[in-house]
């Protein structure tokens, strides 16, 4: 699965730069930071961004920025899941199982 391949590449990348050693608590703060950046991007797409000093972006630029920020959030989740030795495939199954049970889906 491509997500597992990416997670392993990401772990190696972080270890090479000595970013991996940060505790899950610190890693969670990085995740929160990335979610904040994602929120800013979604706000710019949905409501516009009226802030002095910021240049306006085209819809194409905003869409690319959205992909970048979503990827950053995903990367932090993948590193955090590895810190707790959680299998990503199991997390996906967990999500589907919970939602199907909650909303009585088969």
Automatic annotation (TrEMBL):
It comes from the Bacteria. It holds the Pfam family MazG. Residues 29-102 form the NTP pyrophosphohydrolase MazG-like domain. PANTHER family: IG HYPOTHETICAL 16995, NUCLEOTIDE PYROPHOSPHOHYDROLASE. This is MazG-like family protein.
